[in-house]
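Aim 2, interim progress. The first record below pairs a target sequence with its structure tokens.
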Amino acid sequence: QVQVVESGGGLALPGGSLRLSCVVTGFTYSLYAITWYRRAPGKEHELIASISAGGGDLNYAASVKGRFTISREKGENTAYLQMNNLKPEDTAVYYCNLRDYWGQGTQVTVSS
């Protein structure tokens, strides 16, 4: 059974940092790209970062480029999203996606 589980969300101050994790089990994690999305209240899903299967091809939405870093650990079946210099507009539920599989999301709130 495939499971995608995100964690690491929470409350952060503007300018602060959080690190999200995405653990994938029951699937050949290493063969596929990983993508992080987010959904803010009243808005559509936004693709914010992706990383190729090999880890060498990274892509970011303009809204997070230079502040967020996506990475993956092959041996741990885990992907990460390091989020720095957070802004209130980063408040959203963050989801990890691998092919047709999604996690339940983790809430990130940026507020003073």
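The second target in this work package is listed in the same format:
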Amino acid sequence: EVRLVESGGGTVEPGKSLRLSCATSGFTFSAAYMSWVRQAPGKERGRVARISPACTTTDYADSVQGRFTVSRDNARAMMYLHLSNLKPGDTAMYYCVKGTNWRERGQGTRVTVSS
């Protein structure tokens, strides 16, 4: 059974940073593309970052390019998202997703950016 558990969300002021973590189990993590997807209230979800199995390729949504960094530790089956220079528009629930299959996601961790 695929299991994904996010953590690290919280409420921060604009300009601050957070690091989100995703603990995984139940599949061969080191062979899987992994993504972070976010959804704000009343808005469609959108992918913010993706990372290839060997970390050789990452890509980001234009809105977070240069501020967010995705990484992974294949030995620990963990994925991370470092969020810096946070803006109110980054407020959303952030989900860890196996590949691009929305059905294989965690429960999410909430990020709120507010002064």
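DSSP finds no helices and ten strands in the chain. This observation will shape the mutagenesis plan for the next reporting period.
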